[in-house]
Amino acid sequence: MSVKSSDSIGWEIVSDAVKTEMKWLISRHDGAENFEMRKFVIKAGGRMPKHIHPDMEHEQYVLKGNYLVGIGDTTYRVKPGDVIFIPPNVPHWYSNPGPEDAEFICVIPKRETIRTIKLE
């Protein structure tokens, strides 16, 4: 079990992304056996390039901002309260062209390594 303030967790720069950071809210280090939870911030003008995770799905919950998410061949404009499901091996990307930061929670299955294949 673990209860902590998310303010006590440091931010990490997301590699290959622009103006994007994340923090591990709940991870294996908290004793999580099946799932891990991350929080992402894509700052105004930021983006994450198109990529896939061959063996990992994502569940996401939009907290703040209006931004674009590409999933497969479809682009979605998302807003606070929207939920996103990205199956394994499906290309996806993010872009925040808006004036405010975008924030979302991302839950993933626990893996020893997160395999990411950059497509751009």
Task: Please give a structural write-up.
It contains no helices and ten strands. A hairpin with a 4-residue loop joins strand 1 (12-13) and strand 2 (18-26). 13% of the residues are buried. Strands 1, 2, 3, 4, 5, 6, 7, 8, 9 and 10 form a ten-stranded antiparallel β-sheet that branches. With 120 residues, it is an all-beta fold.
CATH-derived topology = Jelly Rolls
The overall average pLDDT, rounded, is 93
The gross shape turns out to be globular
Query: How many domains comprise the coordinates?
Result: 1
Strand residue percentage:
over 45%
State the CATH architecture. Answer: Sandwich
Q: Treating each run of at least 4 consecutive H or I residues as one helix, how many helices?
A: 0
Give helix and strand order, one letter per element, not per position.
EEEEEEEEEE
Number of strands: 10
CATH class: Mainly Beta
Give the low-confidence spans: none
Helix content: under 10%
> What is the CATH H-level superfamily?
Jelly Rolls
SS class? mainly beta
How does the major sheet shape up? 10 strands, antiparallel
Return Rg in Å: 14 Å
Distance between the termini: 39 Å
